[in-house]
C-alpha cells in the first residue's frame, strides 16, 4: 500500500529539519574554538569519544541502508519490513563524523602544535605578548585559577576520571574507548566465523553509539561543575541539538507507524532512538547549568 502523500511529506520535512539542526549544532563549537584560539574548557574526553560514536552511527546507517545481506536479515526478522533508515540519517552521520574529527584536530592544533610553534618562535612571542599555556591543568574555576585535586579518597578517582591535558583523554576514557574498539573487532570475528549474523554486528555497532551518547556528555557536565562555568562549551549547540532530537524522533515515529505500518521499527533502530532521547536529556542538563546553576557572563569572544 502506497503511503499517503502527507506522511511522505512529513517524513521528508522532519528529516531535513533534523539534519539541518543537528548538523548546524556542530559549528558553534568549531567557531568558538577558532575565535578563542584555544580549546580550554572543552573536555578532551568529549572530543575523543565523539568521532568514534559517529563512526559507529555511520557504519550502522550505511550498512542497514545499503547492505543487501543486512537488509535481507532484517526482513526475515520483521515480516518483510525494511530498516527505518532514511537518506537524512546517512547524510547526518557522515557529516557528523567529518565535523567531529575536525574538532578533534582543533584540540591538537590549539593544545599542542600551536603552542609548540609559539615556543620555537621567540620573536613572535615578544610581539604577541604572553599567551596562555595550553599545557596547564585543564581544570580551573571560572576565573581561570587551577583547581587542586586531593591525592586521597575521591581525589584519586578524580585524577583517573578527569583529563589534565588539553589533548589527551583521561585514563578512564582511554580504557572506555579501547574496550569499545576491541569489542567491535571481537564481535566481527564471531560474524566471520559464522557464529553471528552481519545484522547483529551492525546492531552491536549501533549500540556503541548509544552507549557513547549516554556517557560522552558526562565529562563535560563534570568539567562545567568543577569550573563553575560553561565558558568553554558552546551553549548555542544545545538549542539546535534539542530541535534535532525532537524532529529525528518524529521522523522515526512517522516513518515506522504511518508509512511502513510497523511500530516495531521504532525500537528496531536503537541508534536513532537512543541518540534522540539521550541528546535531549543532556541538553536539558546543560541549559540548567548555563542559565541557572552557573550563571556567568559570556566571554568576550562569544559576545562578539
From TrEMBL:
SMART domains: CTNS (SM00679). GO terms for cellular component: endomembrane system; fungal-type vacuole; vacuolar membrane. It is found in: Endomembrane system. It is a multi-pass membrane protein. The keyword Protein transport does not apply. The chain crosses the membrane at residues 6-27, 47-65, 90-112, 175-195, 201-218, 230-254, 274-293. One of its GO terms (molecular function) is L-cystine transmembrane transporter activity. Keywords: Membrane, Repeat, Transmembrane, Transmembrane helix, Transport. InterPro entries: LC_transporter, PQ-loop_rpt. It comes from the Eukaryota. The keyword Transmembrane helix applies. Its main location: membrane. This is Cystinosin.
